[in-house]
């Protein structure tokens, strides 16, 4: 059954590709096995055309000049069908080989495999050699990845359930972002008319495509990189003064700038009179944008840091430490 | 097997066989990711196709011969299919996006070849590759210079001296390591190496290697068996901890790989069990979560956090930066 269909689609492709003029439906019906025998030729032919198009084959519609009337015909232009000529040197082929092995998700890995077979068909020598040190893995553990990948390419709407909201969302996906090994989809939330970003690992169940491909436009000038920046910490707009034990809390130290108590007073930081650093500590100015985020980080660093200023940050860290300090837990126990 | 996938395969297999001559069926199977039996079926189907009004001689000729016990395929009479179909959009995007991401993990000497390949593939894909601009992959791969140095040491089998920030202990360390492999996990690049300072196999995140120098000394441990790069980060031998997370700490359940979870209960508490690779990591997590978390089991798992918090508060008092507990 399916074998017959593959055979028919193959014959249809060959017929339209090798024709020098538009082939009419009547001619197709006469010459392709499977069309002759059927009583529902029109429906079958429409479906076959759709299937070829969804496989990436462009079918042109037109009328031959020598024909009378509106005898519509079809053809596939070789220049729109065929893969162009290309040559890769050994280094380039190695890099393509490495890229081809990067995808973990089955359907995208299959797309890469198919692309590589096409390259091999035009004589590209694909090399499966490893390059010491160079290895790329694009993790896609999210079950919904393939649906969103295709939807972004096809510009087709997607409906899905999202864990935190507990409700169904309808999205016009604009793009996919991988950050820290996790995938996010960004797009226009149709119900709420706002641009939103969703983490694929929080999508519940199977997302469903709806509507026609290409049915919405991505606003010109949409910059995925800028939108992705929303995932990374915002640019610091203020500074904290933090004492850090030598060799510890490297992430804080690298972001910070070593200063003196005198210098920081001059810079407007409020330090108690006679303030002296604990032994083995250095004083750093650390830029930040979110008091909450820096509070968490500083509390996590425990006794390796002492927050000197500003007071609101210091109090927030101290408050957090109280949650774990011995007397506190004993009192509440 | 969908007819669509089969059509794609057949339209690619015909030009491949026309241009490459006799090809083992096994090789075709590996190339297309299907069984040899499926390849034989595909070839049989191809042999029933050809130019319309198929009289004698217009079918595509397919032969499968046994050569030295191996099935070898050969094909002719299909010159109109001597080129494969252009890349589809999903093929073009998959390849271009992976190649673009490879730039992020490559060292500077490898970039020119990647860029040339990218250019050629983009030209080949035409507008079907445009959608690659709709995907953005960010990889934590560290500093270009560090990558270059590490690769040089890997290539020449030399020992490295590195300055490394240990995140879980929040400490900067100086180490001598024998590099074994660069690998990728969860969107970040790591260096697997034999660490002489620790006396064992260690995994270093490239973006936490602050600086690296190649030493004039060959590596000692070339025969170390590396763990499978695809295996999970933690093994079941590692100890684990069970935590109660209040709403402000629920992100933990999303962020880390859990071995068990339940809830949330009516008062918003989720109970999770997760492996602990390093006790210092747990201490930092507890301190950062403050009153939004409590330890259920094992007993004493919160001891380090309690000591650390007590010590930290004592420091604030000693420096005159705080009175007693805020009201």
Brief digest:
Chain A has helices spanning 2-18, 25-31, 41-54, 78-81, 90-100, 106-121, 145-154, 224-229, 250-255, 261-266, 291-300, 311-322, 326-332; strands at 23-24, 60-63, 72-75, 157-162, 167-179, 182-189, 194-199, 203-210, 238-245, 257-259, 281-288, 305-309. Chain A is α+β, with helices and mostly antiparallel strands and 333 residues long. In chain A, strands 7-6-5-4-8 form a five-stranded antiparallel beta sheet. In chain A, strands 10-11-9-12 form a four-stranded antiparallel beta sheet. In chain A, strands 1-3-2 form a three-stranded antiparallel beta sheet.
Describe this structure in words.
The complex is a heterodimer of chains A (333) and B (327). With 333 residues, chain A is α+β, with helices and mostly antiparallel strands. Chain A folds into 4 domains: 2-81, Arc Repressor Mutant, subunit A, CATH 1.10.10; 84-138, no CATH class; 145-229, Roll (SH3 type barrels); 238-327, no CATH class. Chain A has helices spanning 2-18, 25-31, 41-54, 78-81, 90-100, 106-121, 145-154, 224-229, 250-255, 261-266, 291-300, 311-322, 326-332; strands at 23-24, 60-63, 72-75, 157-162, 167-179, 182-189, 194-199, 203-210, 238-245, 257-259, 281-288, 305-309. The longest helix of chain A has 17 residues, at 2-18. Chain B is of the alpha+beta class and 327 residues long. Chain B contains 9 helices and 13 strands. A 5-stranded antiparallel beta sheet of chain B has the order 8-7-6-5-9, with helices on one face. A 4-stranded antiparallel beta sheet of chain B has the order 11-12-10-13, with no helix packed on it. Chain B has a 3-stranded antiparallel beta sheet with strand order 1-3-2. The longest helix of chain B is centred in the first third of the chain and has 18 residues, at 3-20. Classes of the chains: A alpha+beta (333), B alpha+beta (327). Chains A and B meet through helix 1, helix 4, helix 5, helix 6 and helix 7 of A and helix 1, helix 3, helix 4, helix 5 and strand 4 of B.
